[in-house]
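We keep the chain:
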Amino acid sequence: MSEHHQFICPRDFHLPPPDWRALQAQLLKGGYVLEPRGKQMPYRAISNLVFGLAGLNEGSYQNPEGVWSTGALVARYIQAGYLPADLPIRYDDTLEETLALLAQHGITPDPLFEDYESSDWHSPQYCLGPAARPYLGADTRAAHDQDPRNFPLMLLAFDGPNPSVAVGENLSEPCLPGSNQPLGAMPPFDSHVDFIGAAYKDPAAKWHCEQNGIDYRILELDWRYSLAMGFRMVRMEGLAEEDAHGIAELIGDLTGQAMVWSHRHL
């Protein structure tokens, strides 16, 4: 099964990174995301916990269809006989509260469920809130109104010294800004992948374009929405191109830094 994620990250990741915890507070306070509690938990978070619990007992996977909270999921596993019958069922808990409850009873879900891109800090997975609607296209607004749990958002922070790189099988050769022509050769780099490697070692690395005499840092080129790179990322799902543009604009306004976005297909 393929996965599709959208990533938003600062364009100039050689600069000091924005405060992602402060951004989290702004998103919550402004209603751009919902508190991930009870029925406001995105399906992705519940699905991940399903796999975490299933990893404790072979053959214990429970279909999450119709499960609307972590408490409802715990109840389903209790009914199936894979969790203790005396485990409290708390339907309005956050994922973190549910994990703490399980830990109190000596239960630690399989860590494979932890879906945080190997980040050094990550927020909970949030649903997009009503204040984010103006930044979405009409079709996505309608789908969001029907069920916001299909639109998860997670903040990811990486301490370095090297940036995180989010690419998939759809990685494209970059173009000059405003051009649709792939660059192809990028001397002195052997390829665009080599330029990614150089920026990984030195975020301030530049490529000099002989054609126009301009030096470009890596995300100043047009990667046709196929490369995210840096120390701060917002990961989302379910967005079309128009939506990702809009949310990137929102994040840029809140942080005061220019943002770019990409689509990763795995």
User: Anything to note?
Assistant: Residues 105 and 202 are 46 Å apart (CA to CA). The helical segments are 20-29, 43-54, 70-79, 95-104, 138-146, 192-201, 241-255. The first strand starts at residue 4 and ends at 10.
